[in-house]
Amino acid sequence: MARLYFGSDHAAVELREHLAAHAREAGHDVVETLGPATADEKADYPDVAKALCAKLTAQPGALGVLVCGTGQGMAITANRIRGIRAVVCGDTFSASMGRAHNDANVLCLGARVLGLGLAATVFDAFVAGSFEGGRHQRRVDLIDG
Ligand code: RB5
């Protein structure tokens, strides 16, 4: 089971809460949920992404899920932080390959792109995935090298 942090801006509060509940039901450890309590409370996605990534880099092995309108702003911000490898996914193949080949530790999803059901399925593929290592480790090392 995964140790998970969830974060969203105002555009994705519903999706964040849906995924956190889905994760708890599946038996995952939802350590913390970051971002506004309601969609009326505006929050800037870079602030949420930075806060979540700071927690994640202090906890090797934990995974993050960052959701905003498109997932893009969260991913752009998260990928500036050393040790974070964030992928925007709209399908299960990308989600599992992001783990297997890129050792992704943050999944970014767009609440204005995916329905709740597909987002949960993509999330499931991401958390079920695992890094293959081997030749991919050398390539992942080159990202920060
Ligand atoms: C907020 O309106 C929106 O710009 C944000 O949620 C996200 O899509 C940015 O990447």
What does this entry look like structurally?
The protein has 145 residues and is an alpha/beta fold. The chain has one domain (3-144): Sugar-phosphate isomerase, RpiB/LacA/LacB (Ribose 5-phosphate Isomerase B, Chain: A, 3-Layer(aba) Sandwich). It is 46% helix and 18% strand. The protein has six helices and five strands, in the order E-H-E-H-E-H-E-H-E-H-H. The chain has a five-stranded parallel β-sheet with strand order 2-1-3-5-4, sandwiched between helices. Strand 1 (3-8), helix 1 and strand 2 (29-34) form a beta-alpha-beta unit. The protein is globular. The N and C termini lie far apart (30 Å). The protein binds D-ribose.
Task: Please outline what is shown here.
This protein has 145 residues and is an alpha/beta fold. 46% of the residues lie in helices and 18% in strands.
Features:
145 residues; alpha/beta; Ribose 5-phosphate Isomerase B, Chain: A; 5 strands; binds D-ribose
Mean pLDDT: 98
Bound molecules: D-ribose
Proportion in β-strands = 15-25%
Strand tally is 5
**What oligomeric assembly is this protein in?**
single chain
Structural class: alpha/beta
As a whole number of angstroms, the C-alpha radius of gyration is: 14 Å
Output the CATH topology.
Answer: Ribose 5-phosphate Isomerase B, Chain: A
Strand sequence of the main sheet, in spatial order?
Answer: 2-1-3-5-4
User: Given the structure, what is the number of helices?
Assistant: 6
CATH architecture identity:
3-Layer(aba) Sandwich
Q: CATH homologous superfamily - what is it?
A: Sugar-phosphate isomerase, RpiB/LacA/LacB
> Which CATH first-tier class would you pick?
Alpha Beta
